[in-house]
Amino acid sequence: MKADRRRHESSVRPSPAPARDALAKASLRDHLLFMRKFFRQGRRIASIWPSSRAMAVASLHRVRWEKARVIVELGPGTGAITQEIVRRLKPPTRLIAVERDVDFMRILRARFGRCAGVTMAHGDVKNLAAILRREGIAHHGVDYFISGLGTPSLPRPTRQALLDTVGYYLQPHGCFTNITEIPWYYWPYYRRHFRHVAFQLVPLNLPPGGVYHCQSPRGQPTGA
Ligand SMILES: C[S@@+](CC[C@H](N)C(=O)[O-])C[C@H]1O[C@@H](n2cnc3c(N)ncnc32)[C@H](O)[C@@H]1O
């Protein structure tokens, strides 16, 4: 009986502490890797270093952890936001994180790949619909998209595919959240694609930035 309870308790533990400690220690290495990639690839990486903890916490401001079943993180990089999600994640809630960069993906898998309920998907968000289908996610099956992408600067076909897919998979009361390092600038852009958009300023980031919380996608969503 006791053994059963212990087994159950260990299966609902949010995340192993070593994953969190390892991430803190690796912070300098993450910054250097980001900078190297940013100077080589610029807009493909979209930021010179990882988001601050304040930015990560703001990204998760709208998440109702008790009700959420599926969270999809887009462009997790080295895991600055992932770390905060994994800290709060409890079964049966799942996290599916989609990252294109192979070096970042290797780091993410090493840090979070063994955490309960976490799937690290190596791929481009232009193929997000196929990735979610492969993971068995149904129409309106995603509660939250947490995006670290420079969404407005993505190539047009990728952006279109992404927004269509978000429209198809996002729960009617769900939220698409996107970080930014240029406060308010993209508010009209997000308003064109979502009926309700709120902007949350995050001064404690370098540079100061913010988060768009977007609900009710406009347009003709497809699951293709
Ligand atoms: C600005 S960084 C944010 C990283 C992390 N979320 C953070 O806040 O520190 C953007 C991330 O999106 C990834 N990315 C950019 N375009 C992508 C795409 N088309 N598909 C998947 N990931 C992409 C980059 O490799 C990078 O890791």
Q: What is the mean predicted local confidence, pLDDT?
A: 89
| Total strand segments | 7
Which small-molecule species are bound to the chains here? Answer: S-adenosylmethionine
Topology pattern, helix = H, strand = E: HHHHEHEHEHEHEHEE
CATH architecture: 3-Layer(aba) Sandwich
CATH-defined superfamily: Vaccinia Virus protein VP39
Shape: globular
Please give the largest β-sheet: 7 strands, mixed
Description:
The chain is α/β, with parallel strands linked by helices. The chain has one domain (18-217): 3-Layer(aba) Sandwich (Rossmann fold). Helices cover 40% and strands 23% of the residues. It is built from nine helices and seven strands. The protein has a seven-stranded mixed β-sheet, with helices on both faces. The termini are far apart. The relative contact order is 0.15. It binds S-adenosylmethionine. S-adenosylmethionine is lined by residues 44-47, 50-51, 75-77, 80-81, 98-101, 104, 124-125, 148-150, 158, 179.
